[in-house]
Amino acid sequence: MANSESEDFESADEGINSKSTEGPPSSQMMSSAESSALTATSPADPGNLLTAASKKESSDQPHGIVPVGPAVNPESLGAKPKTLQKSKGKSYSKHRSQRNTAEYSDSIVSSTNNKPNNQAPIRKGRIGSSKLGVKISPPDIVPNEPVVSDSSKYKDNSPWSHDLPKRDENKDNQDVHDSIQPLLDKLASLDVVETSDEVIDPSSDKPVYNWGSWGSWGMNTILSGASSVSSHVTQGLSTMSSVIESGLGAVEPEEMAKLTVEDNKSVNTEANPAFPSDQASSSFNVMGNVLKFVESTGEMIVNSGLSTLESIGKKTMDVLQEGDPGLKKKRALFSREPDKPTLSQILREARNRAEVEDRERVQTKKATRAHFETLFDDYKGMIHLEALEMLSNTCQLKLEAKLLALSGTPLIEFQRKLIQIKEQCEIPDDDEEEEEDDDRGTIEILERDLTAAMRGLLVPVPHTKLIRVSEDTDTWLATMRCIQDEDSQNDNDEWVDEEDASEEADPQNALREIHQQAIQALARFTASVAEHFHKTAELLLLKEEHDCAVECQSVVMMTSALCSRVSSVAARFSELLSASANMLDSTQVDHNDVNLLITNVFLEASNSSSYIQDASQLLIPVLQLGAVQ
Amino acid sequence: MSYAYLFKYIIIGDTGVGKSCLLLQFTDKRFQPVHDLTIGVEFGARMITIDGKQIKLQIWDTAGQEAFRSITRSYYRGAAGALLVYDITRRETFNHLTTWLEDARQHSNSNMVIMLIGNKSDLETRREVKKEEGEAFAHEHGLIFMETSAKTAANVEEAFINTAKEIYEKIQEGVFDINNEANGIKIGPQHSPTNPNLPQSGQGAGQGGGCC
């Protein structure tokens, strides 16, 4: 398509060339409508065609300008420049000079004679494009100075008017150029002035324009890319010293200067293809230009980046060597002796040690929380029992002393009395009192029995603490049962509750919590019992008169009531445990674990009962001593 | 919770000298102007640190009333330290010290560390017993002496801790046989004890056999 088009243009060009000399009047009539300046030279038929084209293009012109550089249609970039390059004929330079003069002096858009106009529009395009570049690019990215220098270079025409013809070695071109040099200079100056209103550029301009904008577009993109990269570098190295920053800043003018050189080159290389009729090489040149841009900007970025890195490195070394010339200390720090443990080793060991300690602490904490003996000790049960034991021992010693002092019948009588008291204090088996199992263990029964026992013992030991402890336990159990009832109701409504699903470990913990509470309640109660027996023993020793039978009976009743209470508490906690376990899914709870917990509760309950019975047995010497005094 | 040693203390002295108040100040760091009469013995415990070791002080606060004397004597046994307390505002409490000291010496082991404490030092205006008198008595009987105030907490910590230091030094010197619990010193539990089916009271029965 491009070829055919260019051929069409070529033929048109030929037509122009041939007819321009002839100058038919018909064409003048036609073109007079267009412009007075053009009529003299414009051919009839092609002129007709071209005027139509120019009309169309001039109407398109605003579009061509408004979408600046980057918005240029690639098709127009590809196809139209070729036609232009093709269009240079032998007579073209003459035409061009004439056309240029006419065109620029009149400041009228050249329409039909676009081909001879080739050179001037190229320059114009360049300037225009660079102007465009200025327009589109923010001032901070592409400063104005390079453009100014750009245009100033065009102004003196040195790269354009002298170099290009030489290189091209076009026979007559040299002469033509020489002759038109003043004109060109004038044109250039005009050009600079004229660039302010670009809109007038004709169809002939447009392809060239596109070339320029293409180049500048690429340049601008690269430029903006480069500047954005450098700005990123600056941002990244915000900690850098101002010296380095200014260094980076100084790069920009260099960058611009380089780009200006590249710009010139691009103009040259763009202009060059205008002379040899080689389309392919021109397109390659364009590519080469772009590549050069990329190369140069890349080089620039790398260079500035390297210098930045270098200065950072230097600074780092300076800091490191501060007060440590030759880095001796730091080297010694890093090259430790082999036998010394490394930091990571020490840290690893410390971590392992901490882990072990943590595990032990957690284990001991767990153990103590549900450990009957420890809790019993914490509630001062052990020390009261110890004190009671000491008292009991003292009484035993006193009794033994009395026994030693006696002999004969009084001794037998004494011994009989001691044995009698001991027998009276025998705690009956639980089986005998099975019938009233339901009532036993409740606080009411306990309080009733304790009050009766204290009345029998006639010692002012208050049992309020025992009752209070029992009440606390009952309250907790009642609360738990309420929660459980609510839970079971909820379970009927919606079994798959979100909380149930999310808290996998919870059921086991809930059971452990119940178990812990059970042990705690038992330990607390037993400790209170130990204290109660201890105080009872102390006050019994202070008592002047003793009714041994009643005292023994009271002690037995008290012991039975307390032991019943312990069994009752244990049973209720076990019920709670099994109920809680049954409520939960069998998959969630290991029933062996539940059974273990229940067994443990009963075990500690029997342990508690043993303490209570032992405490009551410790009272026997106290009672015996009272009886024989 | 865990401790290296447990020292058993006993606080003795006439009624109303402030034994229970001293204990309350040491364990709870508070003062209670009106205190119930102690029946037999009450207990307190606190953890202290000596030489980087955790030491649990188990304090037996005995009743000062004459009626309980026979009972409280039972508790002297197995005490590593004793705080013998008198009231600086009541001369008779000072005068009774000899009896108390005899009791303590008689019913406890000979190595027991005894700290003489002149309490209520805040009541300087009502002072009846001079500090020098207390010092002289202590020197004479080989006791440590301190004047304290359970109300202002003056010297309360020091009284308990200095006694513990003295006991600890005796342990270091080898005076105390820490394996004999009759000395009032227990070695802390190395590991959590297993659940014994029988209460510990059984083993203590034979303990009392040695003394009459």
From TrEMBL, chain A:
Keyword Disulfide bond part of the UniProt annotation: no
Annotated Pfam families: DUF719
Compositional bias ranges of the Acidic residues kind: 1-13
InterPro entries, alphabetized: DUF719 (IPR007998)
Comp. bias (Basic and acidic residues): 163-175
Low complexity bias spans: 26-44
Ranges of Polar residues composition bias in the record: 99-120
The entry's keywords: Phosphoprotein
Disordered, as annotated region: 1-175
Origin: domain of life: Eukaryota
Keyword check for Flavoprotein: no
Residue spans of biased composition, Basic residues class: 83-98
Sequence similarity: Belongs to the FAM114 family.
Protein name listed in UniProt: Protein FAM114A2
Organism: Frankliniella fusca
TrEMBL record, chain B:
Compositional bias ranges of the Gly residues kind: 203-212
Any one GO CC term of the record: Golgi apparatus
Spans annotated as Disordered: 188-212
Key words, A-Z: ER-Golgi transport, Golgi apparatus, GTP-binding, Lipoprotein, Membrane, Nucleotide-binding, Prenylation, Protein transport, Transport
Cellular localization per UniProt: Endomembrane system; Golgi apparatus
Major localisation: membrane
Superkingdom of the organism of origin: Eukaryota
GO MF annotation terms: GTP binding; GTPase activity
Gene Ontology biological-process annotations: protein transport; vesicle-mediated transport
Membrane topology: Lipid-anchor
PROSITE patterns linked to this entry: RAB, RAS, RHO
Family: Belongs to the small GTPase superfamily. Rab family.
Name this protein carries in UniProt: Ras-related protein Rab-2A
Origin organism lineage: Eukaryota, Metazoa, Ecdysozoa, Arthropoda, Hexapoda
